[in-house]
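Here's what a typical entry looks like (Probable 26S proteasome regulatory subunit p27):
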Amino acid sequence: MDEKDLSDLLANVKIDPSLTSRMSQMDNFKLPELMVLKTDIEAQLEAYFGLLKEQGIGMDSPLVTPDGYPRSDVDVLQITMIRKNVNMLKNDLNHVLQKSHVLLNQHFDNMNVKTHQKANDNGANSGDQPVQYAIPFAFISEVVPGSPSDKAGIQINDKLISIGSVHAANHSKLQNIQAVVIKNEEKPLPVRLLRDGQILTTSLSPSRSWNGKGLLGCRIQEL
């Protein structure tokens, strides 16, 4: 490989310099800026995975033959560089998510304080005015026909803002959804969704009394 070919290779697989620059400034970012950075990192990762897929290679596929020689059917150098960048971007994405969770907690803490203050100013019980969350944290990737989710009007690509008491600041990688669903089996759970830019509310009753698996009959994935 001559110097020009190597230069072209490096240009093809290097991390977008703007991502590196923004990561160095991340501590000063507000939540909307972090969400844009998260999306851009995910897009870069998707591009890298696409390059690996073109060569029929995954992150753990061997790059040497059983005899210990570099494989001739794939670009070993390119793949090695892509894998290195993927691991770096995964770490960056994890840092962004951690920072965004901190900011989300601060955001919702401030909302709670303002809600309690407003309730006190009005002479009302703060429990009478629950916080209305508006930031989605997951999306619906599958809805089984006839399932509790289907009956509740939930659709594919709906973004989940809250389900019961679970929202963006406390879902713990979606683990708390399972807990609240099991706890409320055969009971109506309030669900708040974002669909086509509009916030919708519905009631979902987790149940085993339908012809399918699970209590919800939908697939929920973290944003």
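The chain has two domains: 3-120, 138-222.

More examples are in the samples folder.
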